[in-house]
Each structure stands twice: as C-alpha cells, then as structure tokens.
C-alpha cells in the first residue's frame, strides 16, 4: 500500500466507523514497516491534506528522524500543516525544535505566531520566556492571548511583571488568560493589581480574577473578595466565595 493510501485510504465503497477503525494501521506497525520515511516525504506533497495527515502521523509515531523535516514544515504555506507540525514537535520533545519555534514566534504571520506560542508553552523550555514576554506586548490579540497561556504553563517568575501590565490589555480575551496565568504563577506581586481588577466592567474577567486570587492565597485579597460576594453576577460571587475558602485553608 502506498503512502497516499495510508494517509487517505483507497477510494472504495464507504465503510462503517467500526470497519475503518479495524483497518487503521497501528503506530507500531507503521514503525515496523519503516513508513516514517514515507510520511517524511509526504510532508513535501503538493496536496495540503496529504501534508496535514503526514504531520499528524509523525507526531503520533514520535520518531526523531522526523524532527528536521517537521521543523521545515513550520514554513508551510498552509496553516493546518504548520499547526500539526508544531504539535508533532511537542510530542517528540526534541530540543532542536525550540529555537525554530521561537523564530516562528518572532515572525510577522499571526497564524504562525499563535501556533508557535502554543507549542512553546507545551514544550516547557524556559528559553521561550523572553520571546513570549515580547509577544505579550503587541501585535495580534490572539498572539498575546497565546503568549499569556504559554507563560502560565511555563511558570517562570520573569513573566509576573509583564503579565501584571497585561491585565490592562484592551481585549478582554487577553485579560482572561493573563489573570489565569498569574494565578498559576502564584506570585504575591500580582495580588494588588488583581484586587483592582475585581472592579473591571467585564464580569467574566472578574470571575477569572477571583479564581487567580484564590490560587495565590494571599490575605491581602480577603477584603476585596468579600466585596465581590455582592457582585451582580452569581458566577462571580461563587468564584469569590471559593477563593476565600482557599485562602482560609492556607
């Protein structure tokens, strides 16, 4: 069976889901049959669907021979190929991927930068902290959001001050994940700014802020959270109550 057949299956009569699952080759069989090279070659196919499926397959196989070809696929013109290549590199977890992902984060294409930020957060390498901090400061709002999420996952204290500043981002979608990241980092420097953010006009953001204050667990947040128990929205009040319970337990 050729590589295209493995990626898409032969065009015969439609099969049931059970039949498709039964016919699907296992990762172990793919390895045994040395199809890694076939999937690597498929990354250069003119058909974007072939390239997408090849990138996904290589991520599942987790063979180090695919690292350099997947790094090259980060330059693919198709956003989904790039996304699957970035996710595949995260699964393989080879350090060679970090610098190219950082370079992708520094690029001009917002879609590329978003996928790079996500991959760097999952990769867990602190080389990415400073580039992610820079990405948090400007450009597309989804890139800033992705940078905030990634910084929360990395857990590096260098991100605290930039994240505090980003609590004032003009887009609430960014502010939500900034608050979430600060909660994960658990640094007391964020408590006062988060307490002020409890007065933000967006109720969902106030809920995220209350959650973050509960995770940090600093007593400075008690009075502002007590005031938040009177918030007009129930989910904010519930978040404030849970946060107070967490602080009490610490």
Explain this structure to me?
The chain is mainly α. The chain has 3 domains: 1-93, Leucine-rich Repeat Variant, CATH 1.25.10; 95-185, Leucine-rich Repeat Variant; 191-250, Leucine-rich Repeat Variant, CATH 1.25.10. 68% of the residues lie in helices and 0% in strands. The chain has helices at 3-8, 17-23, 27-32, 36-42, 48-61, 67-73, 79-92, 98-105, 110-123, 129-136, 141-154, 160-166, 172-185, 191-197, 203-216, 222-228, 234-249. Helix 6 packs antiparallel against helix 7 and helix 11 (141-154) packs parallel to helix 13. The termini are far apart. The model is unreliable at 15-27 (pLDDT under 50).
Strand and helix layout:
Layout: H1 3-8, H2 17-23, H3 27-32, H4 36-42, H5 48-61, H6 67-73, H7 79-92, H8 98-105, H9 110-123, H10 129-136, H11 141-154, H12 160-166, H13 172-185, H14 191-197, H15 203-216, H16 222-228, H17 234-249
GO molecular function: oxidoreductase activity
Region (Disordered): 1-27
Protein name: TOG domain-containing protein
